Amino acid sequence: MQTAMNLNEIAEGFANPALGTQKVFRQVLDAMAHPGRIIELDEWVPVEGLDEATTALALTLLDFETSLWTDLPRGASALQWVTFHCGSPMGSSVSEADFALVTRPESMPRLESFCLGSEGSPHQSTTLILQVEHLEARLGRRLMGPGIDGSCDLDAGGLPDHFWSSRKNARALFPMGVDILFACNNRIAAMPRTTDWEETPCM
């Protein structure tokens, strides 16, 4: 049974939706152009169960034309907020959704489970928004590829053991693959499908 939505209890979105989405979209483009770079967002809203960056990404990237898969529990206030403000069709399977909003990455599906696109239409793949426990530079895995000057290190906390091996497998299927946006507090970092990784050498 679907839980009725109480509009009086739903948190607000951007105070100025047009300006807010424009600002965040430019910062998302900057993050995608410079994988591994941590960017503090200028616009966000507080919503219980979601980090500030997650709300900003949802308001900016999701709409009634983008299907969504999420691990948010049915009836959760955060899910009602996403449904109300973004209007994305829910109920898409992991393998079909345009976007995936993951708030519990430790139990997320393997990346191969999401839509990787096809050789003829690689852009028709899932973009993942992963809300992680922490996001730190100069730690974690070493990222390499287009948009990175040499290499950079990024640590995203709370990811399952299979994430990085799944990411390596998906990278081998380029131009197919998934693009990833990490969100933590009011910060984001991107790992597009063009980015490869290796273990950080021990010092």
TrEMBL record:
InterPro entries: PhnH-like_sp, Phosphonate_metab_PhnH
NCBIfam families recorded: PhnH_redo (TIGR03292)
Cross-referenced Gene3D superfamilies: Bacterial phosphonate metabolism protein PhnH
Source organism of the structure: Desulfoluna butyratoxydans
Lineage: Bacteria, Pseudomonadati, Thermodesulfobacteriota, Desulfobacteria, Desulfobacterales
Highest taxon above the source species: Bacteria
Protein name: Bacterial phosphonate metabolism phnh
Gene Ontology biological process terms in this record: organic phosphonate metabolic process
